[in-house]
TrEMBL record:
PROSITE patterns: STAS. It comes from Martelella endophytica. The keyword Transmembrane applies. The keyword Repressor does not apply. This is SulP family sulfate transporter. It is found in: Membrane. Residues 431-540 form the STAS domain. Keywords: Membrane, Transmembrane, Transmembrane helix. It comes from the Bacteria. GO terms for biological process: transmembrane transport. It is a multi-pass membrane protein. Its main location: membrane.
Length: 550
């Protein structure tokens, strides 16, 4: 079997798995499980299903994501990005229709993995990913307003964003002060603990405090018990949903939407984990693992599963060394569910909405958003259009429009670059040999436009080529155009290599390319800019890198 289709679990076992690694994975798994417990229930409730379905997804789906996935540190489970899609699917087709759509999405992801489509998902331009993530965050926050304010609504609130806000505004006078107070206390505790005690499980502590306050003061607020009757003490037996050809056809659009978003979310999360650890995930195996996880989750009554960026980052920071941390996270969640199920009935829904409000805020990549707005008018347009379409139309339209605008912008910019810098000049430069006799210096030349379409291929090469070097020169003299996606790839390369005490030099960057890089905070101090390749080679000899503290 090709290496790209071997789960990381197998690779870890082949390396040799020690007791000390198991201890580290157990600690990180427990840490993530504590974070995932309230979050999984909150996401399920916001998606229009009972909280146990979120826990089923985290336990069963999360286990298979780690067991069969292509990342060492990925944590799978229900994600806030799916809230709107799942809620709409349940409303249209019921629970059985949702479970069928989740299973079909799993089959689609498995097929995508075997067809080697994993790398192509990373072709999505950086402004599109930032825009749709921000758009989803806005929708999640809007979906929690009625619970945060404890509004007394006579009927079901509308799904579309504009209609929802207008409808909720009509009933602002029915605000439940007790529910609002619990939500604000939950948010305040999470934010405060993140600043003063970042290692503590802020979400769980905040929900516990809100639950105790609600019970002790007998506050008139909705709880999991009053709304759903509590949680089961364990998993339900696996079962197939009621299938029919008509139902399968009806849920196909939902299945493709789940598969697309799940693929994007999981691979972005794996890339984040790679950036934090210096490891490299197997994108196609990751898709296969995610596909199996979704099928398994649906069999046990769970909702959609994907790689979750926040929980994966928590896993890395907690000291995880292998996929066993993710499997242990699922085991700990199952123990929590069995032991603490009777206590869950006292959790106020307003507290869980407060948790999701914080999640929505952290989902927005605020620094990246500001950078893209400043970097160029084209990137800003793609970002804003994607965000607005996701919020006011739907996710698929936002992504398609963002891709189309990215392609048009690329064609326009390349046309202008060709007019100023004929391609013949670049071809002549590309044929010049690179002369390097220093074994501690690695040189990589990028030729042609470095845009979102080339990001996956170039990024993969950049990650590998600097292994074992002390100096890493990236020759950009043949690059007529660099977009924000290419700049983001280079930013990730700089972060990884400098963490390993490797000095990075950029050679021959044109004013446009350097301006784009500096707008993404890749400036002098992080890297060394040189006018030519020869000057960069000379700089490595004149000023050898000093060893950095790690």
């Amino acid at each position: 079997m090709p290496t790209r289709l071997v789960p990381k679990t197998i690779s870890v076992l082949q390396e040799g798995y020690s007791l000390s690694r198991l201890r580290s994975d157990a600690i990180s798994g427990l840490t993530v499980a504590i974070v995932a417990l309230p979050l999984s229930m909150a996401i399920a409730i916001a998606s229009g299903v009972s909280p146990d379905r979120g826990l089923f997804a985290a336990i069963i789906g999360g286990f298979f994501v780690s067991l069969l996935g292509g990342s060492r540190h990925q944590i799978g489970g229900p994600a806030g990005a799916f809230i709107v899609l799942v809620a709409a699917s349940v409303e249209r087709n019921g629970i059985d229709g949702l479970l069928i759509a989740v299973m079909l999405s799993g089959l689609i992801m498995i097929a995508a993995g075997y067809l080697k489509l994993g790398a192509y998902i990373r072709f999505i331009p950086y402004p599109v990913t930032v825009g749709f993530t921000a758009g989803i965050a806005i929708i999640i926050f809007a979906s929690q307003l009625s619970a945060i304010f404890g509004l007394n609504l006579p009927g079901k609130e509308p799904g579309p964003f504009a209609e929802k806000i207008a409808y909720l505004a009509q009933y602002a006078g029915t605000t439940n002060v007790a529910a609002l107070s619990l939500a604000l206390v939950t948010i305040a505790i999470i934010i405060a603990l993140k600043r003063i005690r970042p290692g503590w499980p802020g979400m769980l502590i905040a929900v516990a405090v809100a639950s105790l306050a609600s019970f002790a003061l007998q506050l008139p607020v909705d709880t999991i018990g009053s709304q759903f009757g509590g949680l089961p003490r364990g998993l339900q037996a696996p079962a197939l949903p009621a299938f029919s050809l008509e139902k399968v056809i009806a849920v196909l659009p939902d299945a493709f939407a789940f598969a697309l978003l799940g693929s994007i979310e999981s691979l972005l999360s794996a890339v984040v984990a790679d950036g934090m650890t210096g490891r490299r995930h197997r994108s196609n195996m990751e898709l296969i693992g995610q596909g199996v996880a979704n099928i398994a989750s649906a069999l046990f009554g769970g909702i959609c599963v994907t790689g979750t960026i926040a929980r994966t980052a928590t896993n890395v920071r907690a000291g995880a060394t292998s996929p066993f941390s993710g499997m242990l996270h699922s085991a700990f969640l199952l123990v929590f569910m069995i032991v603490a199920a009777p206590l869950a009935r006292y959790i106020p829904l307003a507290a869980l909405s407060g948790v999701l409000a914080v999640v929505a805020w952290t989902m927005v990549e605020k620094a990246a958003f500001r950078t893209l707005l400043r970097s160029s008018r084209g990137d800003a347009v793609i970002l804003i259009v994607t965000l607005l379409l996701v919020v006011f139309r739907d996710l698929t339209e936002g992504i398609v429009a963002g891709l189309a605008l990215g392609a048009v912008l690329f064609i326009d910019r390349m046309g202008k670059n060709v007019a100023v810098n004929p391609y013949a000049d670049y071809h002549e430069k590309a044929e010049q040999p690179i002369v390097n006799t220093d074994p501690d210096t690695v040189i990589y030349r990028i030729s042609g436009a470095f845009f979102f379409g080339a990001a996956a291929t170039v990024g993969s090469a950049l990650d590998r080529i600097a292994d074992g070097a002390r100096n890493y020169i990236i020759d950009l003299s043949d690059v007529p155009y660099l977009d924000s996606t290419g700049a983001n790839v280079l930013d990730g390369t700089v972060r990884k290599t400098t963490r390993g005490n490797v000095r990075v030099l950029f050679a021959g960057a044109s004013p446009q390319v350097r301006s784009t890089l500096e707008s993404h905070h890749i400036d002098e101090g992080r890297v060394t800019y040189c006018e030519t390749l020869e000057a960069a080679i000379a700089a490595t000899k004149a000023a050898p890198p000093q060893r950095q503290e790690t």
